[in-house]
Amino acid sequence: MLALLGATMPAAQAQQPKVLRVSMHADVRSLDPVWTTQTIATIHGNMIYDHLFAYDEKLEPQPQMVGDWSVSEDRKTYRFTLRDGLKFHDGTPVTTKDVLPSIRRWATRNSAGKTLMTFTDAVSAVDDRTFEWKLKEPYGLVLDTLARANGLVMMREKEALTDPFQQVTEAIGSGPFTFKRDEWVPGAKAVYTKFADYVPRRDPPSGHAGGKVVKVDRVEFIWLPDPQTAQAALVSGEIDFLENPQPDFMSILEATPGVKLMAHPAKGTTGVLQLNHLHPPFDKVKARQAMLHVVRMPDIIDTIAPDPRFKKLCYSYLGCETPMETDAGSEAYKAAPDHRKAEQLFKEAGYKGEPITILHATDHAHINPGTQVLIQHMRRTGFLKLDVQAMDWGTVVSRRTKKEPPAQGGWNIFLTGTTVLGSSSPITHVALGMSCEKAWFGWPCDARMEDLRRAWSLAPDTAARKAIAVDISKRAYETVPFIPYGQWVTPFAYREDRITGVINVSSIPAMWNIERKQ
Fold it and tell me: How many helical (H) and strand (E) elements, i.e. helices and strands, does the chain have?
């Protein structure tokens, strides 16, 4: 084990008293958390960038980069003023010249941002530190949208003006850590150091909000693709924090002295089986409906999370144990697989045995076993021809952006997941939007769904939103933008005998406030 980690972690550095060594669920490959929804890119973004607002531990939006804010009596004009002391890592101050293009770039790619902009009349600077957000009509989700952990990050004007569909390659933010580009080794290690000029808020840390006080000099993301190796590294103390331990290893970690498992009540993942709506066979709704008679959720979720404490059969497109939970319209999916019905629907969709291209991420803790089960389900039908293409998760993230036909480098199916927190709202659930070419990968298209999502965002209270959520669920099971395949919680694990101050957050792990014991 020591020899293995030695290839990615110099021995001298490993002995430094203020180095935090962590292993995340994936390797850092993209430096742009706006360009991709990949969770590891969001984690990277949280290290080096800051946000206008952030969720606290109670999932309430709190100002972060914003110092003061107000809203007009008609609820149509928000005024925000940046707090004192905000600097980029190159020493330049953060101003509204950076904020405004950052907002525009984010809103072009982010589903919730796109929705917010449909209600927006203008976002304009008042001066270097103050800007106004004027709405066409009152919209109650402004602060919630800005507070999303994987949402709006402040880039320098230079990077923020980059085409939203091109990756930003510089990694200079104003957050609590700086990215050591010269030490970045894709496939092995990403390194972050304390930003000495970062001025944290004076509030105590709470979720992703409050004071982001960095108490170590250096954080190393060590990429350990083999789950057993990662677990052994935590047990032996070679790493301090393991974000995504395999379910099979939970009992071992729980029994290891000095190791603690922790999970936020809202921390969880909803499985997303994404279908490509641009190309046959899933450009036809009957082929997508057919998959509801092929996929069996219990098989997939049991493979991903065998421990009953950490899983839930969840047929709700809006997450389970959330205010909008509903499984309306899910009868076909809940029933036993019906291959005859599936074959009939595929034939009606024009399917004639063409290969269905499945992107299989073999290095991802839950996507790999989930995809293996999906492949078994589809092969059992006896009539579906599969083209399974094995690759790492980073390659899947790159390839899923391609709109070309599968034979020309595109795809038909891939598995992924999103946070329960993000999926609990039809506005923030990126995979539920069906805005055609503006939609998430798979590019589903349905005007009725978009009307329902808009109506939900304008509903006056929770009861009205719940009623619309039922209609959204029924429409989702009719049009099948994607197929949910369960919900599970993955506690993170850390060495409580070596580090203190670990913040229990709802989704993206926070590396600030952590302190090494002397």
Answer: 18, 21
Beta-bridge partner residues of 245: none
Q: Show the CA angle centred on residue 488, arms to residues 496 and 315, nearest 5°.
A: 165
Count Cβ atoms below 10 Å from residue 15 Cβ, excluding itself: 8
Ranges under pLDDT 50 in the chain: 1-4, 12-14
DSSP structure class, residue 200: -
Residue with tokens 């109506």: 455
**Whole-angstrom distance, CA of residue 450 vs CA of residue 342:** 27
Query: What pLDDT is stored for residue 159 in this prediction?
Result: 96
Query: CA 167 to CA 175: how far, in whole Å?
Result: 19
The answer to whether 21 touches 241, Cβ cutoff 8 Å, is: yes
- List of residues 6+ apart from 233 with CB closer than 8 A: 1, 5, 23, 222, 224, 239, 242
Report the alpha-carbon distance of residue 162 to residue 31 in Å, rounded.
13
What is residue 199's predicted lDDT score, i.e. its pLDDT? 96
pLDDT tens-digit map of 311-362: 889 999 999 988 899 999 999 999 999 999 999 999 999 999 999 999 999 9
Hunting for tokens 């049991």 — which residue is that?
Answer: 302
Q: Among all chains, which residue has been given the structure tokens 């269905």?
A: 356
Rg (CA), the chain: 23
Map 60-128 to HEC letters.
CEEECCEEEEEECCCCCEEEEEECCCCECCCCCECCHHHHHHHHHHHHHHCHHHHHHHHCEEEEEECCC
The CA angle 487-384-350, to the nearest 5 degrees, is 105
The answer to whether 40 and 275 have CB atoms below 8 angstroms apart is no
pLDDT for the residue numbered 246? 81
Q: What is d(CA 422, CA 420) in angstroms, rounded to the nearest whole number?
A: 5
Q: What is the pLDDT of residue 197?
A: 96
Tell me the backbone φ, ψ of residue 495, rounded to 5 degrees.
-90, 95
d(CA 183, CA 196): 19
* Cα dihedral 236→241→245→250 (10° resolution): 60
Cα 51 from Cα 11, distance rounded (Å) = 35
Max Cα separation, the chain? 68
Return all residues near 343 (Cβ < 8 A) that are at least 6 apart: 290, 381, 383
Other CB atoms within 10 A of residue 427 CB? 22
Kindly state the DSSP code that residue 31 receives in the 8-state scheme: -
